Task: structure prediction
Amino acid sequence: MTKFTDEQIINIFKHCDKSDCIDDCRNCAAHQDGECAIPDLGAQVVQVINRKKAENERLLQKLQQAKSEAIKEFAEKLKEKVKMYNSEGVEEGDLIDDLLTVGETVEIIDNLAKEMTEKE
Result:
């Protein structure tokens, strides 16, 4: 029995789905030696769908993990930048009168986002 790739199975299914005539089977990639090489085409299509669903789920989880890690990294770097700006010339325990303005904070965030997204 011939082994078909997922893409070939999908294309064969599309061909069978739009075919109105038995003669059209002769033009199909699965037509071999006068008969269909995939008699269980429906089951094959279901297997392809299940593999694609599993792959999509795996990729979605990987994307969500990467997103979570990026947010954590951004938060840590932002805290470092804000602490560094606010602590210049300040001893630990001193009161800080000159806190960041909203504009300065936005600028730090924008610069950090740019710095993190323009790597390599």
Q: What stands out?
A: The beta strands are 31-32, 35-36. The chain has a mean pLDDT of 79. The chain is about 60% helix and 5% strand. The CA atoms of residues 89 and 96 lie 10 Å apart.
